[in-house]
Amino acid sequence: MNQRLVKIWLSILLCTSIFGVNAQKLTSYVNPFVGTAGHGHTFPGATLPFGMVQVSPDTGTEGWDWCSGYHSSDSSIIGFSHTHLSGTGGADYGDILLMPTIGAWKLEPGTKANPSEGYRSRFKHENETAAPGYYSVFLDDYKVKAELTATQRVGFHRYVYPKSSVSNIVIDLKHGISDEVVESFIQINGNDEVVGLRRSKGWANDQYVYFVIKFSKPFKKFAVADGQDLIVDGRKMEGKAVKGIFRFSTKDQEAILTKVSISSVSIDGARRNLEAELPGWDFDQTKTTAESIWEKQLGTIKINAPVDSIDSSRVNQKKIFYTALYHCFIHPNIYNDVDGQYRGMDKKIHEADGNHYTVFSLWDTFRALHPLFSIIAPEKNNEFVQSMLEDYQQSGSLPIWELASNETGTMIGYHAIPVISDMILKEQASFDINMAYEAMKKSAMDDDRGLKYYKLNGFIPRELENNAVSKQLEYAYDDWCIAQVAKKLGKENDYEYFLGRALNYQNTFDPTVGFMRGRNVYGQWNPEFDPSQVSILGSGDFTEGNSWQYSFFAPQDVNGLISLYGGDDRFSAKLDSLFSQKPHVSNEQAVDVSGLVGQYAQGNEPSHHVAYLYNFVGKPWKTQQMASKIAEELYTPERDGLCGNEDCGQMSAWFVFTSLGFYPVNPASGQYIIGSPLFESVTLNPETDHAFTITAHNNSEDNKYIQSASLNGNSYVKGFINHSAIIKSGSLEFNLGGTPNKDWAVAKENRPNHSITMPADAKKESLLFMPYEASGKTLFVGKKSVQLKTETPAAKIYYTFDDSPPSNNSKLYDRPFEINKSQTVNAVAIDNNGVQSEVSTLNFTRAQIKRAKARFPKISSTATAGTTYPNTADVLLDATFGTYNFRDGYWFASNDERYSLIIELEKPMWVKTLKMRFMQNTGSWIFLPKTISFQVSVDGKTFTEVGTVENEIPLGQQEIDIKEFTKPCDSKEKIKFIKVNVENIGNLPGWHPGAGNRPWMFSDELILEY
Q1: Is the preceding omega at residue 857 within 30 degrees of 0, hence cis?
Q2: Contact, 552 vs 565, CB < 8 A?
Q3: 14 domain-assigned
Q4: Which of 412, 503, 577, 825 has the most crowded Cβ, counting Cβ within 10 A?
């Protein structure tokens, strides 16, 4: 063959390859198994974009890595349920489980160690298949092939059985993922239909799932049960462990199809959903339709190159990209029936005009997922916001983390606000803007979740609110969003007020250490500060992160943050230090803080914007390098391809944006910060008249640095691009190279600028701290020298001894003074402008029993020795009251189920009253004991009961308090021994983010009055 013919033949092969790629369906690049290993918490089953039903296999319901019900470490399947959460850090759902079996009827699922004990079946991962809208697996124990597909509201099962006279389908209403059944029932109609209800309490406090199940073949026998006792041919069963078993005879390779429709409203609602969406029995057609719906949805972003067969690494990148895009479209979920009805936040039945949605993981998704929707699915984003506003109308609050029309209260901030604001500011809103503004303002003006202190003082005291630093930073950002909407609506007073609050992030920045740092109610910085210390489930100053990660969160005022650090060079050096630190967090339980590059944590949301901050200091090439590194090294197309929880699409939305070459550092600003595009050519909204194409010339693994750029054919030198440019028909082109261009987008006028400038006549709010007693001790023996201090520079302190409020007309504090009796001192700090702090009320107590030198009295405890917190019993008799700061060293801590204290007095004496103080800080896992009982004895052997105090478990609210429990002692003789028995509440209640773990009990001074 001559050279010319060889060239022609190669050209033909290349063209064939190109045409093959162009014909390749986008769904073929999606791997729903990504995130099912590691800590991704995704599910592999069948669903449609934003579908009500997610029909998927459950392999386990225990532990954190089974939040979705499935983990790739398992080798057996319990069954296939119809509701699942994608990538959450909390567990729920798993409603209405079905399982095909062969043989004897079994009521329990069995165990992973021995699946044969129950109806569970072993399987092999190589016999699993998953694609958008489809899942299948071969169940080894029963030789049954199970296939799943779905419509919006109906799960469709096809079970292919071997020849058997004992083929079964189990329906288990007891099964759920980390929830418990409140009520349920099964009712059997005829010989091919089952209807019922599963109502449960879990992460969602009150969830209703009505269902209708239809079989393609009549069953020949059935039984129902509530617990262990089967009732053969029973037509209805009610209870909390309701199950049904249905028997068929099957020929070899005979398929029995099952349709399961659900509704939050009623059985009739579920039936209407079934009749409207899946009246027939064509499984393959339903599967094909599901694939077509996904193909259209994925087609909102089209990767135009490269040629797959030439570069296998590009194939993997496309798989990662389209799998990420797939995960972006799973939540939120439609919650209304086909007739518009749904169960609302008030548990009443409402009718939506359009669709009503559930599953709003807003702490995660406000950052990138909703901004992505504003580009490729703005009509959906409007529906999501409308749903949030409906939630507000029904409950009085915008959702924080809404699940099945229940406010879980999980996570922090009021992050519905940036989502709503973004739509208004981008002029995409089709909802009632005035009502939306009312709802946003209501969220910001509440008093709970630390807002009372935040509004009053400009900061949140760390001892009075868990996760105080994170909350303050995130509230400040949300307030900026409110301010921008207020300005757009002409509400100038609100604009100035909320803009001022948006600067409150500065009140947590400690310039002496260069980090965001917690401070107490008196303004004192956390003395045990460790920037790598991670809070777990609300137990510290930060939310699922540490100070390294949160010290870069002020997206509303990045330029102001840079100034706090001392300017561009110091800020850039701080970013460098973040990425080069030892990748370690000082809490072994910090499973959420993962995907570490230094102290940067891609596996959780607080870090997601940080790599893009280099653009603000004129070093965009560092953003290009770091964002590319994170995308290329921390995402893969494998089962463990996510370095942290998927979090309802946020982890994937980060990858999608970064692949496009930009990211929304401030999600509601309408501005995207440019990084480095991953693909040669990508088109947004390709089938519309506003298609926008991003092209990267000379793109390769080594060429990630922007040499030059053009927008719509004109030279472009800015390190950001506005939303208004992207949603128009146009193009953004980059020329890439292997070395940084340190001139492109470097000049100040070409950098992004996110800054807050207060109106010239705005009132400057100064931070003013209450006075405090320097020693921190308010319990004393004999005399007490009182020394008052304030953290407010140059402020003067005034105080009173009576109940009158102090003012600048009260006694001026100029030197320490003595008291020799129990005394209340009220003090204020007043600055040079006459601005007065809150009143500090200091209650000094003179102890009524002196301690002799010879260890009097003696005290011992049965509590387990402390590791997390100290628990030396002597702290209970050290003449020092513990403060709200439970880390101050003055508290006796135990998380035992129960413990006892024995106090031996020096000699028998009359005791009139027994008192003991306990703290409650529910957000930090500290609860009051269930019971506290006091006993007395003369000889230390025979004890007489004095009395018992019983406490109620809080019902979901954040509570911080110090309570003193008192019992009068009417013993007829002198006593020498006192016993205090303390009983824990058990495990943390279901509403608590640490549910299932043992809470702490913190006790302080034991006071004996005689």
Answers
A1: yes
A2: no
A3: no
A4: 412
User: Around Cβ 835, how many Cβ atoms within 10 Å?
Assistant: 13
Domain CATH code at residue 986: 2.60.120.260
Q: What is the pLDDT of residue 122?
A: 98
Q: Is 22 exposed, middle or buried (0-12, 13-18, 19+ CB in 10 A)?
A: exposed
Q: Between the CA of residue 527 and those of 517, 614, 872, 888, what are the distances in Å?
A: 10, 31, 21, 10
The average confidence (pLDDT) of the chain is 91
Reported confidence tier of residue 21, pLDDT bands at 50, 70, 90: very low
Domain identity same for 670 and 799:
no
Same domain, 921 and 792: no
* Range of weakest confidence among 255-259, 428-432, 873-877, 1002-1006: 873-877
Whether 13 shows a pLDDT value over 70: the answer reads: no
Tokens 């939310």: give the residue.
543
Please tell me which residue, 997 or 134, carries the higher pLDDT value: 134
One domain for residues 724 and 788: no
Same-domain status, 112 and 257: yes
**pLDDT exceeds 90 at position 766:** no
Rounded CA-CA distance 682/732 in Å is 10
Of 806-810, 851-855, 888-892, give the lowest mean pLDDT range: 851-855
Q: What is the pLDDT of residue 16?
A: 36
Q: What is the pLDDT of residues 455-469, one digit of tens each?
A: 988 999 998 888 999
Q: What is the pLDDT of residues 275-290, one digit of tens each?
A: 999 999 999 999 999 9
Distances (CA, A) of 299 to 131, 324, 636, 664: 16, 13, 21, 22
Measured in residues, the chain has a length of: 1010
Domain span at 836? 772-846
513 falls within a domain: no
Q: Which long-range contacts (CB under 8 A, 24 or more apart) does 748-752 make?
A: 748/618, 750/717, 750/718, 750/719, 751/615, 751/616, 751/617, 751/618, 751/718, 751/719, 751/720, 752/558, 752/615, 752/616, 752/665, 752/671, 752/673, 752/718, 752/719, 752/720
Contact between 999 and 894 under an 8 Å Cβ cutoff? The reply is no
Identify the domain boundary among 823, 846, 869. 846
| Lowest mean pLDDT across 484-498, 535-549, 596-610 | 535-549
Closest CA to 79 of 48, 107, 38, 51: 107
Burial call 562-579: b when 16+ CB within 10 Å, e when fewer: bebbeebeebbebbeebb
User: pLDDT tens across 662-709, in order?
Assistant: 999 999 999 999 999 999 999 999 999 999 999 999 999 899 999 999
DSSP string, 365-425: HTTTHHHHHHHH-HHHHHHHHHHHHHHHHHHSS--SEEETTEE---SSS-THHHHHHHHHH
Number of domains in the chain: 5
> What's the confidence (pLDDT) of residue 954?
81
Cβ–Cβ under 8 Å, residues 260 and 245: no
> H/E element holding 515?
strand 515-516
Whole-angstrom Cα distance, residue 24 to residue 30? 12
Cis ω for the linkage preceding 664 (within 30 of 0) = no
Which residues are CB-contacts of 468 (< 8 A; sequence separation ≥ 6)?
450, 459, 460, 461, 462, 518, 541
Write the pLDDT tens digit of every residue in 954-976.
Answer: 876 667 888 988 888 887 788 88
Average pLDDT over residues 784-808: 92
Q: 3-class secondary structure for 29-95?
A: HCCCCCCCCCCCCCCCCEECCCCCCEEEEECCCCCHHHCCCCCCCCCEECEEECCCCCCCCCCCCCC
Question: What tokens does 377 get?
Answer: 């699915």
What DSSP assignment string belongs to 942-1008? SEEEEEEEE-PPP-S---EEEEEEEEE---SS-EEEEEEEEE--SSPPTTSTTTTSPPBEEEEEEEE
Q: Torsion angle, CA of 74/80/82/84, rounded to 10 degrees?
A: 0
Tokens of 130: 């998953």
